[in-house]
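A reminder from the course coordinator: this example appears on the midterm review sheet, so study it carefully.

Given structure:
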């Protein structure tokens, strides 16, 4: 790669999470296309999942008193189900297919 590539990667993750939290957009919208330039697709997917878990945990703690649990359950349960289904089928496509698909977004 190039010198200090890990530092750039960590900075990219931090900035994308910060901008995503403050603006209300998904941090992966910013993180994945840029991270793909630095790492392979499987590494980017794993780190994106980790970012989501850590980011969502932090936001849950920050906004705990303002959570509307009825809405959280309506969106959370289907999200968990679809994430599990997506994870089961993720091996059907090659890394190259994912890379081409992401280039459109």
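Designed residues:
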């Amino acid at each position: 790669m190039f010198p200090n590539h890990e530092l750039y990667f960590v900075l990219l993750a931090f900035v994308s999470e910060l901008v995503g939290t403050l603006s209300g957009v998904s941090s992966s919208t910013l993180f994945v296309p840029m991270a793909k330039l630095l790492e392979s697709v499987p590494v980017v997917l794993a780190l994106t999942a980790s970012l989501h878990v850590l980011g969502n945990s932090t936001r849950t703690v920050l906004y705990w008193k303002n959570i509307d649990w009825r809405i959280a359950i309506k969106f959370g349960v289907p999200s968990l189900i679809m994430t599990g289904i997506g994870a089961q089928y993720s091996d059907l496509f090659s890394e190259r297919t994912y890379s081409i698909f992401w280039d459109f977004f």
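Residues 5-64+94-103 form one domain. Helices lie at 5-23, 27-35, 41-62, 69-89, 95-103.
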